[in-house]
Design a protein that fits this description.
single chain, about 425 residues, mainly beta, 24 nucleotide stem-loop, u2 snrnp hairpin iv. U2 a', Chain A, 4 domains, two-stranded antiparallel sheet, 27 strands, binds calcium ion
């Protein structure tokens, strides 16, 4: 083939009488017909041969896809390797791509060359929530407050919140199902004053809350379904004034609350059956003013608490459920306020259920328990770190208080005891 072409070329050139040389490969341009003049080196090559290429010379030579000369850039449309910039090449094309992590995985910080890590704090409402639709991570706080949002489907990419998540006083919000990808909240989760939020379905994948978890004044919230992955609340857990909340189903995996745990004034709350995994509460555990609460038997795994306060739950008839509790590190109080507008706990007649309790780190107060007749549930108690107060228990025989003092031993009560105004008359053993 080459010989044939060379012969023709030689014949033509000889006929024209313009060249005396024979066309050969790599000879300098100009080239004879059927040959190409390569840009690099200005040499002749057969037309079907591949010329040498030099990326960066401004000429597109195979196999280059582009060559912008000095304009080649790994942040531009033609890379330093003379390839056309594309999503997935590992280079960020400035002005076109937000990121390029060189993979086609979308569940990371860069999805489809869109940066999914949104830096800083965001406050959004129904008019601008779409602006954070691409965010898989928000490094700061996300505040959704006082909006007309009905749902949160616009932010269904969201996986991680580095700060707080606040859902506060959204008058029409009925579901958080749009948060179904959310796994962790490093700060607080506040769900407060959302009158149509009847369920927490959508928080199913949240495993931990780094700060406080506040659920307050959500007037139709009926359950925690489904917080099935939540094992840890590192800060406080505040469940307060949710009038339709009847059970804690959905909190069945919760093992520890690092701070305080307040269950306050939830008028429909009937029992704590779904807190069966709860082992420890670091701060004060306060079960207070829940007028329909009949049982705390769900607390069977609870072994340690900071303080424990059970008061003003008028339907509660027993402390059964605290059977694993061996240590109260701070205060232990069964203390009713004795004001007309507080109902007391008249149905509790014994402290049975506290049989495993051996020590109270600070004060032990049993005050204004109008139905209490026996303290024998405290039979294992042998240490009170501060003061023992058994007072104003209308039908408690004073001999019961004497028995407790003797059972613990005055020498094991650091700051002494006050046993007074216990009105029962059953007589001492
Ligand atoms: Ca080139
Ligand atoms: Ca790219
Ligand atoms: Ca990616």
């Amino acid at each position: 083939m080459h010989l044939h072409r060379l012969f023709i070329t030689m014949s033509m050139m000889a006929a024209l009488g313009c060249v005396s040389e024979i066309q050969t490969e790599n000879s300098p341009c100009p080239c004879a017909e059927g040959w190409q003049c390569c840009y690099v080196g200005k040499i002749c090559m057969p037309e079907d041969a591949i010329c040498p290429s030099e990326c960066g010379n401004g000429h597109i030579e195979a196999p280059e896809e582009c060559d912008a000369g000095e304009g080649n850039s790994n942040s531009g449309s033609c890379t330093m390797a003379c390839t056309t910039a594309v999503c997935g090449d590992g280079f960020v094309e400035v002005g076109v791509e937000g990121c390029d992590d060189g993979n086609d995985v979308n569940a990371d910080d860069c999805a489809g060359c869109t940066d999914t890590v949104c830096q800083g704090d965001f406050t959004v409402d129904h008019t601008n929530i779409a602006e954070i639709a691409h965010c898989q991570t928000i490094t700061g706080n996300l505040v959704i407050s006082d909006t007309y949002l009905v749902h949160l489907d616009a932010i269904e990419q969201l996986r991680v919140i580095g700060g707080d998540l606040e859902l506060v006083e959204n008058e029409q919000l009925s579901t958080v199902a749009g948060l179904s990808q959310l796994i962790s909240i490093a700060g607080d989760l506040r769900i407060e004053g959302n009158p149509f939020l009847y369920s927490l379905r959508g928080l199913d994948r949240v495993e931990s809350i780094g700060g406080t978890f506040l659920i307050e004044q959500n007037s139709t919230l009926a359950s925690f379904d489904s917080l099935d992955e939540l094992t840890t609340v590192s800060g406080d857990l505040m469940i307060m004034q949710n009038p339709m909340l009847a059970v804690f189903s959905g909190l069945g995996q919760l093992e520890s609350v690092g701070g305080h745990f307040f269950i306050f004034n939830n008028v429909s709350l009937a029992n704590l059956h779904d807190l069966g995994s709860l082992v420890s509460v670091g701060g004060a555990f306060q079960i207070d003013v829940n007028i329909s609460l009949t049982s705390i038997e769900g607390l069977a795994s609870l072994t340690t608490v900071g303080d424990l306060f059970v008061g003003e739950n008028p339907e509660l008839s027993s402390l059964r459920g605290l059977d694993s509790l061996t240590t109260v590190e701070g205060w232990l109080q069964f203390d009713n306020r004795d004001y007309d507008d507080y109902p007391g706990q008249p149905l509790i007649t014994t402290l049975d259920g506290l049989d495993a309790l051996t020590s109270v780190g600070s004060y032990l107060r049993v005050v204004n328990m109008s139905g209490l007749t026996s303290l024998r549930g405290l039979r294992s108690l042998h240490s009170v770190g501060a003061f023992l107060e058994i007072r104003n228990n209308a039908v408690l025989d004073p001999c019961e208080a004497d028995w407790l003092l003797e059972s613990i031993g005055l020498e094991n009560i650091a700051e002494g005891a006050r046993l007074s105004n216990n009105g029962g008359t059953a007589g001492c053993d």
